[in-house]
């Protein structure tokens, strides 16, 4: 019977060895466990291990820039500007299941990137495939693929995630200036995902300034139309975490020489 169980577990691709089966039987007999308790002892640990490996794989695939989570976020610093209940609700991923978008607007340093990453990590734990990138990095990869003829493959890559986080839109000036088609390439990714999967964008550019920033009013209108379509709009007006952490340089005075 033990051999038949091991063979069945192998067929089901459940990674339980003969030694682990014996240990589970011994523990169950010692404690007088019920059949359900024995079954959990046998497969529960293996299932949890597999789940943890899957989460770790999705987090690695997402390429988050930090190790930040919502659990270690400093909620007190900008308590008046950031509604924790709203962020926790976003972290449930209901908006991703509805294929909605998310736009997080605010000046640099108010915590947009950490919040987007924290939400993304939660969604990885919920089984969603997430990819984080900055607008500048995305543009650089798209323009490179345009040059070497692999743009279709790049577009396919960026459109198959459940959630694509495009951060730092508004800090990509250099990358856009290197290729006049950069803005249109970014639009291709947004358009390809529109209505099929969710996109979250972090930016410090107000919507009415996108045309001036991109230098192309029709492109800005088309981009806004697809980003804001069915989007959760979250504007953060708060203090800069980085500015608060900066230590003012102490003034130094040169000692006066004495004769």
What report would you give on this structure?
The protein is of the alpha/beta class. The chain folds into two domains: 2-56, no CATH class; 63-244, 3-Layer(aba) Sandwich (Rossmann fold), CATH 3.40.50.300. It is 54% helix and 11% strand. It has 13 helices and five strands. Strands 2-3-4-1-5 form a five-stranded parallel sheet. Helix 7 packs across helix 10 (182-193). The longest helix is centred in the N-terminal third of the chain and has 28 residues, at 35-62. It starts with a helix and ends in a 14-residue tail after the last helix.
Total domain units: 2
Spatial extent as radius of gyration: 25 Å
- Compute the number of strand runs: 5
Low-pLDDT residue spans: 251-255
CATH superfamily of the largest domain: P-loop containing nucleotide triphosphate hydrolases
Secondary-structure element string = HHHHHEHEHHEHHEHHEH
Q: What share of residues is helical?
A: 40-55%
- Going across the biggest sheet, name each strand in turn: 2-3-4-1-5
Principal-axis shape: elongated
Compute the separation of the termini in Å.
100 Å
Largest sheet: 5 strands, parallel
- Counted by DSSP, the helix tally is 13
Output the CATH topology of the largest domain.
Rossmann fold
Question: Structural class of the helix and strand makeup?
Answer: alpha/beta
CATH architecture of the largest domain: 3-Layer(aba) Sandwich
Q: Mean of residue pLDDT?
A: 88
* Strand coverage percent: 5-15%
Classified by CATH, the class of the largest domain is: Alpha Beta
